[in-house]
User: Fold this.
Amino acid sequence: MRTMLRKLGFYLLTAWAAISLNFVIPRIMPGNPADNLINQFHGKLSPSAVQALRVLFGQKNTNLWQQYLSYWHSVFTGDFGISYAYYPSTVSTVLGQSMFWTLILITVCTVLGFVIGTALGILAGWKRGTWLDSLVPVTTFLASIPYFWFAIIIVLIFAINLNWFPLSGGYALTESIGLNSGFISSAVYYAILPATTIVVASVGGWLISMRNMMVTTLSEDYVRLAEAKGLSKRRIMYNYAARNAMLPSLSGFAMSLGFVIGGSIVTEVVFNYPGIGSVLFKAAQAADYPLMSAIFLLITILVLVANLLADIAYVFLDPRTRES
Assistant:
């Protein structure tokens, strides 16, 4: 229990530092979106109109400490103001509309890639020297291909040449969003190509790391002892070798879950998928600092929560972490 409380305190301190940096960095950058919009009028706005525009976009005449307290209030209430890129929608509305797509597609595909890659890595490490080792260079080659280039090739072959799948989008425009069979089947159909890109590109990394850790773990004394005791091969492979070899991959998986939003930008831009990655790309183009700040905050929280869950899993999987 003391170990868990100590880890929780560390993550709370890290969250405070990350959120504070997320507040400071946009404010030390030169200019702001409201100024950029005002400059487009080349001095045609009166001082009262400029002040009204600043108030409209939430830029009040307050000192930095008051803004910092207001920012923490926004963190706890979820009210980050108006989005410049999607005006007059609020930041919370934009995130709420796009978060569903990213969490469903990117998270499911990340988990699927981890499960497939880890399972293949366990088998390749257990039966090293067999034909399963041929999977390593193939998947490594696929993982080394530039992400955007692989996505473009898939679009060219399966969407343009063969016309098997739609070119872009998240669902057919003829369908209404809701829990109905028409929308669900359309969303799955539109998600096949981006999902394939993510899974194929991620399997190789998990496979080779798990295979190498399995080879190292199989040479440990406790595995040899289990073999000498006559335990079944299945029990040795999963309970003794795979369980311990999986610990480094578990930490990497936690990090990948935390970065699903940031890592989805290329996929969602290429396929014009309506997720947070596309929203972040448009926000960066429009210098939409409130929206970018909220997305970065979301990424920060996801990274910390994912790593906290990984540490909790470590405590249960590795008894050595519970030692004082």
